[in-house]
Design brief:
single chain, 803 residues, alpha/beta, 7-stranded mixed beta sheet, 34 helices, 15% strand
């Protein structure tokens, strides 16, 4: 079997970049030869995040090059001349200053696909901000949660979401550019950003905010104030202090949870008849209180077998990422592997980005030692010198049939549609429940963008035959339903491959295709719990010792507000599924070969937490926040500034520390032995916090951002308006092309994020969302059905017209 990227040469530039490291990791796992360029003293991540470095750089080689010297730059130029792909993550303009920018490299190697990863793009006021995850998240409003929680001000979450998202979007873009290169023989320039890497975390609130503005109302910042009369996701705490996260998006799941909890009798009360939706917030809270009281009566050992016995209860138990390695389904899927590292020994870590039947990934080498390099690339670029016309979009001509509901998989295909694929959303009689989850067509605005909708009754033989005809002419079929659902409807792998032997069939469910949990329901909050989100995001208060001896009222008042997390279970799964799609399409386009590809939401979340989703002898603990979630230390933290504003500070090196204390007027701290080294600063963290807190209080946040950015210190004014408002209303994003307007079929002019990756020759595609059944007639017409036949299908209830 040939690896998907087995003939590719990849050069990775940008020491210290998590995004570049993860993008290179995916390509290395897929068989590419990846050379990582490091400065003479090594990538800063070797010391700053040793576990992350080992995982994110597995399978690569290390090339030492001092890019401040002519010799180092010449070495990069030589390597790039024979590369297929360059991943570069320097600050905007830095590579150009060194003479190794994209223009220079692509001029010397016209077949080169060059992907640059920046924080906020290469122009505009935000372009000069340092590309650290905490700074991008703070600027983008992701942490503006304090007004809804246990204290005022922003809440710091130490997870590299921006880097993970940008990495996966970059890989998908690279695959698209390589597909285009098969036709043209030419590479092109790509651009990805950390801020767009965060965009999948904005599920639907931005749509509601824009609709509120259209109605003359103040836009909301958070989903909780609009979901007060729903209980789609809840947590309970057992007698022994263990946190159980549940998700109840559908009525039968709410009923199942009531049955497990022993309160099924409440379903007879009219106020609870529509669980998980209620007539008012009081009824919703009353149901939640009943569950809290019941779960607090018994230990986890009592509840776990009862929860596991009901497959309709979507739940997981809160834990750490290391505990997630032991999850039975994670192990069954092969989502944890063991790699021998010459220094730390056997290392258990996250498995490959997907499981490919024809082109399996089998990472086996750990990260390289500094300078561990086998020599220059042995062959020139492999682009076919055909010189054909460029396609309109990277995945133009690719047809994907999307059969699934809610967010994770459907947003993966929406991102594929933005890369130019034709995506046909196959829906049943009532359509995707996500279309009505938060108001008619509100949440689905993102998940149906750029798609066509075909609505048929798959319970009928005629409806199944139509669906099979559509797939027979497609390139990819992807489903997110639990194992067996598609099979019962004639849409199983064997059935469809028999009709379309070159089909890529992707199963992107919650838990996977088979195994002990494969028949269980799963949604975002529970999926992220498997990967250790509680331990990483809210680790201090997730410890069972924090709620020992508390009553239910005390836990709800003290503990529960401190357990509020960023919901990333869906977005992480969407990003993984996007990469699996993109790589399988690249392979199919080159070889004509289809295959079965399996991903899962739990695997996608393990990837997002992969620097802690690992274990080995002597592994250092991952930094977690203090008990009030201000940060992981004095130099990665939010501080109060003047006039009710806040700053986020991120300092990584000794040089940055010296620049910081000089710029804030505390130069004496650079000579203070308490802060002379990173180790000393860690030991005296509270003293440093006190010194910096006093100084930051002197000026408003915008002034500090200006002063410290000019000194090349990572500091931003924290956006307290929220991530949805930032995406929809920030003027800088509009001016720099990171967002754009489009015409929604129901709501009129709306704002959305531009395609996540820019292309110099084959741009992404922007198209509006679809309503259920909107494209029935055009799709059936393409299959050869006449207007009379289509009308007959509608009359018989086989084809469901738009409502």
């Amino acid at each position: 079997m040939t690896a998907i990227c087995g003939e590719l040469n990849v050069l990775e530039l940008g020491a210290g970049s998590i995004a570049a490291s993860m993008a290179g990791m995916v390509l290395a796992d897929a068989g590419a030869r990846v050379l990582k360029v490091e400065p003479p003293d090594g990538d800063i991540l070797r010391a700053a995040n040793p576990s992350g470095f080992l995982v994110w750089n597995r399978g690569k080689e290390s090339v030492v090059a001092d890019l401040r010297t002519a010799e180092g730059r010449d070495r990069v130029l030589g390597l790039a001349s024979a590369a297929d792909v360059v991943i570069e993550a320097f600050a905007p303009g830095r590579a150009d200053e060194w003479g190794i920018g994209a223009d220079v490299l692509t001029a010397a190697n016209p077949a080169l696909v060059h992907c640059s990863i920046t924080a906020f793009g290469e122009s505009g006021p935000y372009a000069t901000l340092k590309g650290y995850d905490s700074l991008v998240a703070a600027k983008a409003g992701l942490w503006a949660r304090g007004a809804f929680g246990h204290r005022d001000g922003p809440i710091f979450y130490p997870v590299p979401w921006a880097s993970y998202g940008a990495a996966m979007q970059s890989v998908a873009g690279i695959a698209g550019a390589l597909v285009a290169r098969e036709t043209t023989g030419r590479g092109q320039r790509l651009g990805a950003t950390l801020v767009n890497g965060l965009e999948p975390l904005e599920y639907f609130v931005g749509t509601i905010a824009q609709l509120m503005v259209k109605q003359g109302q103040q836009p909301t910042m958070d989903s909780r104030d609009m979901a007060a009369a729903t209980r789609y996701g809840m947590l309970m705490i057992t007698k022994d202090g263990r946190i159980v996260q549940t998700s109840t998006l559908l009525p039968h799941q709410g009923r199942a949870l009531c049955e497990v909890a022993g309160i099924a009798h409440v379903l007879d009360e009219p106020r609870f008849s529509r669980i998980p939706m209620f007539d008012n917030a009081d009824d919703a809270q009353a149901w939640e209180d009943l569950l809290w009281e019941e779960f607090r009566k018994h230990d986890l050992a009592y509840w776990l077998p009862r929860l596991e016995a009901s497959p309709d209860v979507a739940f997981e138990v809160a834990g750490t990422s290391e505990q997630g390695l032991e999850h039975p389904q994670i192990q069954h899927n092969g989502d944890v592997i063991t790699v021998d590292d010459p220094t730390v020994g056997p290392m258990r870590e996250v498995g490959p980005i997907g499981h490919f039947s024809a082109t399996p990934m089998a990472p086996s080498r750990s990260a390289p030692a500094l300078g561990d390099f086998r020599g220059p690339f042995e062959s020139p670029s492999l682009a076919a010198q055909v010189g054909g016309d460029a396609p309109a979009h990277p995945f133009a001509g690719v047809t994907i049939v999307d059969f699934g509901n809610f967010y994770a998989m459907p947003y993966a295909t929406a991102m594929a549609a933005a890369l130019g694929a034709r995506v046909i959303k196959l829906e049943d009689v009532s359509g995707d429940p996500y279309r009505v989850a938060f108001g008619p067509e509100v949440a689905s605005t993102k998940t149906t963008a750029g798609k066509e909708s075909l609505s048929v009754d798959l319970r009928t033989p005629e409806g199944r035959a139509i669906a099979q005809q559509v797939v027979a002419g497609a390139d990819v079929f992807i489903t997110s339903f639990r194992a067996g659902v598609a099979d019962k409807l004639g849409l199983g792998y064997e059935d469809l491959r028999a009709k379309n032997p070159s089909l890529v069939y992707v199963h992107a469910a919650g838990y996977g295709r088979d195994g002990p949990y494969a028949q269980r329901a799963l949604y975002a909050q529970a999926a992220q719990a498997v990967a250790g989100s509680f331990g990483r995001q809210v680790g201090y208060w997730a410890d069972p010792v924090r709620n020992a001896g508390m009553s239910v009222i005390e836990m709800q008042a003290i503990v529960a507000p401190r357990l509020f997390q960023i919901i990333d279970g869906d977005s992480n799964g969407a990003l993984e599924a996007l990469v699996a799609l993109a790589l399988s399409i690249y392979h199919q386009r080159r070889t004509g070969e289809g295959q079965l590809v399996v991903t899962s939401m739990i695997s996608g979340n393990a990837w997002a937490y992969s620097d802690d989703f690992c274990t080995y002898a002597g592994k250092p603990p991952i930094p977690v926040c203090d008990d009030e979630y201000y940060g992981t230390g004095a130099l990665d933290r939010v501080y109060r500034a003047a006039e009710g504003t806040w700053v986020c500070l991120a300092v990584r090196t000794d040089a940055e520390f010296r620049a910081l204390v000089g710029a804030v007027g505390l130069p004496e701290l650079a000579e203070d032995e308490r802060f002379a080294t990173a180790e000393a600063r860690g030991a005296n963290d509270s003293d440093l916090v006190a010194a910096l807190s006093g100084r930051f209080a002197d000026k408003p946040a915008d002034e500090w951002e200006s002063v410290l950015s000019a000194a090349r210190v990572g500091c931003v004014a924290v956006n307290l308006e929220g991530h949805p408002n930032f995406v929809c209303f920030d003027p800088v994003l509009r001016e720099t092309g990171l967002t754009l307007t489009y015409d929604h079929p129901l709501f009129g002019e709306m704002v959305r994020t531009a395609p996540h990756v820019t292309f110099s020759e084959t741009p992404g595609r922007v198209a509006p969302p679809c309503v259920r059944g909107q494209h029935n007639r055009s799709i059936l017409g393409d299959l050869g059905y006449s207007d009379d036949e289509i009308a007959g299908f509608e009359s018989d209830g086989v084809v469901i017209p738009p409502s």
